[in-house]
Design a protein that fits this description.
The complex is a heterotrimer of chains A (531), B (175) and C (437). Chain A has 531 residues and is α/β, with parallel strands linked by helices. Helices cover 24% and strands 18% of the residues of chain A. Chain C starts with 16 loop residues before the first helix and ends in a 24-residue tail after the last helix. The chains are: A alpha/beta (531), B alpha+beta (175), C alpha/beta (437).
Chain lengths: 531, 175, 437
């Protein structure tokens, strides 16, 4: 384990650690553009120059491994400061400096480093007209990525991403020198399934995400750690939100799962978090509807549940462990209902972790494995159809979107028989006939845990409080439990439900709520992985 | 013997490229020179340029498929090097060296003369597709400055009169 | 001096194997095969041969950097990229004596234990690639190359690999990338090619002229070679002389002659009876020397002492009619065109220099321009870049500003303010007619 000194701070690091990471461990930020912890080291941008005692020339920190006894100077070296100032001047020589109209502003490494690496007295000597790339200033490179080549600083991160991570090699430099630009082969669409990551790794505004552009200034956003609801892999992500609106997902570092990547499918589920179910709606036999307040609705619901002679419940692999646990306790154990969890295979998804291993999804739900661990019965489409075919007084759908089959003509016909009670986050065809439609808040308002396909119990956090009338499903369950006289289960906080599970479920014993959050500081972008 | 003209294949012919058996066997031979197929990229591209006159997108796709590479990667390589034509070239590409030794020995006069005689400058071609001028950097023949490379051949110690004679000779060659 | 490297020049049919054999060809290789690799390396170390490609690194020592216990293949690469402006010596050797190069390749490959060698030749040299191919075919035919080199049991194959137009591919690691079928982006060092080179294997890259020195070192002995020139600067050297001399061309002279001798005795002096103004001693990447420095000795150490470098031995001679601002602009265009674009200071700096110098030429210079040029040069060199291309333009251009600052200032004094207009880097309209002459 080499021990070295950086700017007077001593730090011990693992063998093979480069100076950027060593400095990070010592609490010192060495600036970089082309370096990325999960991409190959190319040493192109030259901003990470440091002075190493005993070496006549400045060295690039990204390509220099820490050696025992090394004495490194970064901010404390006047030579380094001078050289970095010059590198910044070179980088900005042809940069359009259009920050006011650039959507990267606020999360741009070029902005950040021009503040940190150029002294207050610095003024550029560049007086020439800037180089431009006519026709490439605002080009849709693919379905999700917009290119402005004028802003490109030639760091090659996006190219390396498609070569090394997504393995499509769709991006390349065309031409060379200062005339080189980023392009796809023969101008074909950049339809890499991870295409938006290329915009993530772009340290400047050369590649931006079409869906997010100009919707919100980056500095307005707050980030809340969460888990991707798109499949069983369980990629860690940030919900970036402002004033109770979700604007985007950005990857949250987890070396074991998604390194710092997200697939486009998962990433663009972000918008779906903005729909929350409306207030409880009761539909009478004559078709008239009313919206009783929550307390009144739960009281009526409890009565109907108790009155049902046969009760069947469709749970969902999209629910958190806590919600599934409460559902099992309330509907199966207490009310003696029959409960199944449908699982839909969905499109195959995959993700590469920090070790370069591909993880594959087993199904299209974030928590099928949690349902399995809680001993719930998992069924496929055929099983779900058979389940709905059996007659029952009352059918409860805990999540209208548990399986696409629930929206099929066949399922709707089966559900029209008897009373149906539907919890839903969005508009669903069952609304036409369901006796009760109960508004559920989206993942953005929910706390809880998912168990990934690789047995990883991961916690997501609520970004903001739900809008009026919509409750997180766990909250509905707590209210129902109270009405049903189940004091033990009438706990509102998912954290307390989790404690119950820890004490009661073998699959959760020994786990601690606090330790399941993963990377939960806002440091992700400060650490410049996304840029 | 005078310089052979380039016969550039029509873009339509290069939409989908299939290598004929001769090319295939040449490629197979080239692959034996290297431990990895990718290393044969430049030689195979040369083979294609000699055959088709230029490197069309369809050629890039065929080469990429043959060597197991991504087309974008091959495109990146093709455009890094200045000698691969990515558009159909004229029959004679006049590559006028403009680096120091040639410049101080009269490359500027040669370009001016070409402009006067052919009406075109660097980066342009004559409307009949006979000549195309490219201002190139050092050709490594500075002792014979000024130098013009026409297609594959070097012409050294040129002056406007010698250049005229050369152009006359080249223009006289029939397809 | 009796020529060693150019002794075939002027002989009828000198390119053929029979001509080469009649001149004692491949005797050096025979001797090498008899001596064994270690002894061959010792010969080369003792000869004090230094690389002729530009850096002047001791050739024998470079060979010893290959890890002793490396299990896999190793490669030898003959660098025939010859693209340093003002250099055309390798072409001369290949043109007249391709087998001399092939013999040198075989000797070096044997010394380092390589069984495959590549000749990386610049793409424009179509004719000379063919000359080499023909010679290689002859050598294979006569079992000089192939599975059993000269009956020794040592196998060696040599392939010609053509570049496609990129100055940067003369740089060792960029050449390797190009050999591997990639864009010619220089690699980060360390690791050096002798440890991790072509296809991840130890690789030695030697210049054509360096390799061409080997046969005579083997046949005539290292002491003979070291007796030419002076210690640490030994052997014959080819000088490519171009520009305003009466007889431009390649001359072979012992290291240590003065540039005055090269220019005035061997190349007939300055054209048209004009006066010498300045010259580049070792290709355009070497800092310029003025007429007053013409007595500098043409060897590695003397040039270094004079603040420049022998480089490839490409002497570009400029007479009194030449405008040094034009020269700087011309070079800036070259390097901006040839910068691979990988690292910031070189990519941006070379382009920026073009803008400034063209603006000065357009009559819109500013008083601060010379200092800005010097600043760009300072921060695009000295380890600020991945490869030496940053130094390659920074050193000569800053030397021009330093030595001929008055020419810049004269133009700037007469300047008018510039209209805002970007000079495109490409395509360049070429030098102004009448520049130099």
């Amino acid at each position: 384990m080499p021990k070295l000194t950086i700017d007077g701070r001593e730090v011990e690091v693992a063998q093979g650690t480069n100076l950027i990471e060593a400095a990070r461990l010592a609490g010192i930020a060495i600036p970089y553009f082309c370096y990325h912890p999960y991409l190959s080291v190319v040493g192109q941008c030259r901003i990470c120059l440091v002075e190493i005692e005993g070496q006549p020339r400045l060295a690039i920190a990204c390509a220099t491994p820490a050696v025992d006894g090394m004495v490194v100077r970064s901010q404390t070296s006047s030579r380094v400061r001078e050289a970095r100032e010059a590198v910044m001047e070179f980088l900005l020589a042809n940069h359009p400096l259009d920050c006011p109209v650039c959507d990267q502003a606020g999360e741009c490494l070029l902005q950040d480093h021009s503040m940190s690496e150029q002294g207050p007295q610095f003024s550029t000597r560049m007086v020439e007209t800037r180089r431009t790339f006519p026709g490439l200033e605002r080009r849709l490179l693919g379905p999700h990525v917009v290119q402005n080549q004028n802003r490109c600083i030639h760091c090659s991160r996006c190219i390396r991403f498609t070569q090394e991570i997504s393995e499509t090699s769709q991006l390349t430099y065309v031409s060379r020198g200062n005339r080189a630009y980023i392009d796809t082969f023969d101008g074909r669409p950049f339809d890499d399934p991870f295409s938006a990551c290329a915009a993530d790794v772009c340290p400047v505004g050369a590649l931006t995400v079409r869906e997010f552009r100009f919707r919100k200034r980056a500095w307005k956003l707050r980030s809340t750690p969460s888990i991707c609801p798109g499949c069983s892999i369980g990629c860690n992500l940030w919900i970036d939100h402002h004033e109770r609106t979700v604007y985007r997902f950005t990857p949250r570092e987890n070396p074991d799962v998604n390194a710092t990547w997200l697939c486009d499918y998962g990433r663009f589920l972000a918008e779906s978090l903005n729909s929350h179910g409306a207030t409880a709606t009761l539909r009478e036999e004559d078709g008239s509807t009313s919206s009783p307040p929550v307390e009144e609705a739960t009281r009526a619901l409890a009565l109907e549940l108790k009155a049902a002679r046969t009760l069947r419940v469709v749970a969902s692999a999209n629910l958190s462990n806590e919600e599934l646990f409460l559902a099992r306790e309330i509907f199966a154990s207490h009310l003696h209902g029959e409960l199944v969890t449908p699982v839909w295979p969905g499109e195959p998804r995959r993700m590469k972790n920090a070790r370069g291993e591909w993880l594959a999804s087993s199904d299209a739900h974030p928590n099928a494995n949690g349902a399995r661990r809680l001993g719930l019965e998992l069924v496929d489409e055929g099983g779900l159809a058979r389940f709905l075919y059996g007659a029952a007084d009352l059918t409860v759908l805990l999540d209208a979107f548990a399986h696409p089959y629930l929206a099929s003509e066949e399922a709707l016909q089966l559900l029209r028989v008897g009373h149906t009670l539907v919890f839903t986050q969005r508009e669903h065809p069952t609304r036409e006939f369901a006796r009760w439609t109960l508004g559920v808040a989206s993942l953005a308002c929910n706390d809880g845990t998912f168990t990934s396909g690789t047995e990883r119990v991961q916690r997501f956090q609520a970004a903001f409080a739900p809008p009026r009338g919509a409750l997180p499903l766990g909250r509905w369950f707590a209210l129902l439990a109270r009405e049903l006289g189940l004091a033990r289960l009438a706990v509102a906080a998912p954290r307390d439900v989790f404690q119950l599970m820890v004490s009661q479920e073998r699959a959760f014993s020994g786990l601690a709520w606090e330790e399941l959050a993963g990377a939960d500081t806002d440091s992700y972008r400060e650490h410049q992985h996304v840029g | 013997m005078s310089t052979a003209p380039i016969h550039a294949a029509h873009p339509e012919e290069l939409h989908e490229v299939r290598f004929d058996p001769t090319m295939e066997s040449q490629i197979a031979e080239l692959l034996t020179h290297y431990p990895v197929p990718r290393a044969a990229l430049l030689p195979v591209l040369w083979l294609c340029q000699n055959r088709y006159g230029w490197i069309a997108p369809g050629v890039i796709e065929a080469v990429a498929a043959r060597l197991g590479l991504a087309p974008a990667f091959v495109q990146g390589v093709v455009t890094f090097y200045t000698m691969f034509h990515t558009t159909p070239p004229a029959r004679y590409v006049l590559q006028v060296c403009t680096t120091l030794s040639c410049s101080v020995c009269g490359a500027g006069e040669l370009l001016a003369h070409l402009k006067e005689r052919l009406g075109i400058g660097p980066g342009e071609r004559t409307p009949d597709g006979t000549f195309q001028i490219v201002g190139v950097q050092c050709l490594g023949a500075c002792g014979g400055a000024p130098v013009v490379q026409v297609n594959d051949d070097y012409y050294e110690n040129l002056d406007p009169a010698k250049l005229d004679a050369l152009l006359d000779e080249l223009a006289a060659v029939k397809e | 001096m009796e020529p060693t490297l150019l002794k075939a020049r002027g002989l009828e049919g000198s390119r053929t194997l029979s001509s080469y054999l009649s001149r004692g060809g491949y005797e050096g290789l025979r001797r090498a095969l008899a001596l064994g690799p270690q002894e061959v390396t010792k010969y080369v170390i003792d000869s004090e041969l230094r690389g002729r490609g530009g850096a002047g690194f001791p050739t024998g020592r470079k060979w010893t950097f290959i890890p002793k216990d490396h299990p896999g293949p190793r490669y030898l690469v003959c660098n025939a990229d010859e693209s340093e402006p003002g250099t055309f010596k390798d072409r001369e050797i290949i043109e007249h004596d391709p087998h001399l190069v092939i013999e040198g390749i075989a000797i070096a490959s044997f010394a380092i234990g390589a069984h495959t060698a590549y000749i990386y030749i610049r793409g424009e040299f179509v004719r000379w690639a063919k000359v080499l191919e023909t010679a290689l075919a002859e050598a294979r035919q006569e079992k000089i190359l192939g599975p059993d080199v000269l009956g020794s049991g040592y196998p060696l194959e040599v392939w010609v690999h053509r570049g496609a137009g990129a100055y940067i591919c003369g740089e060792e690691t960029s050449l390797l990338e190009s050999l591997e079928g990639k864009r010619g982006f220089p690699r980060l060092k360390p690791p050096f090619p002798a440890v991790v080179g072509a296809f991840g294997m130890p690789t030695i890259i030697n210049n054509v002229e360096t390799l061409a020195c080997l046969p005579s070192i083997l046949t005539r002995g290292p002491a003979w070679f070291a007796s030419i020139g002076r210690p640490r600067n030994t052997g014959p050297k080819l000088f490519s002389v171009s520009g305003h001399v009466v007889r431009p061309g390649v001359v072979e002279l012992p290291l240590g002659v003065t540039f005055r001798e090269i220019i005035f005795e061997h190349c007939g002096g300055i054209r048209g009876g004009r006066a010498l103004k300045a010259f580049f001693p070792g290709g355009s990447s070497a800092p310029v020397l003025t007429a007053a420095e013409v007595d500098t000795k043409a060897d590695f150490d003397a040039c270094a002492e004079a603040g420049t470098m022998l480089g490839s031995g490409g002497v570009i001679v400029l007479d009194e009619t030449v405008d040094m601002v034009e020269v700087a602009a011309n070079l800036a265009h070259f390097y901006a065109h040839e910068s691979c674009g990988q690292c910031t200071p070189c990519r941006e700096g070379s382009d920026w220099l073009v803008d400034i110098l063209e603006r000065i030429l357009d009559g819109h210079g500013r008083p601060e321009d010379p200092d800005t040029i010097l600043r760009i040069c300072r921060f695009a060199s000295q380890g600020m870049t991945i490869c030496p291309l940053g130094d390659a333009f920074s050193l000569p251009i800053s030397s021009i500003v330093n030595k001929f600052r008055d020419e810049f200032e004269r133009r700037i004094a007469a300047a008018t303010p510039a209209p805002q207009k970007k000079q495109p880097v490409l395509p360049w309209a070429g030098p102004r007619p009448g520049f130099g002459r």
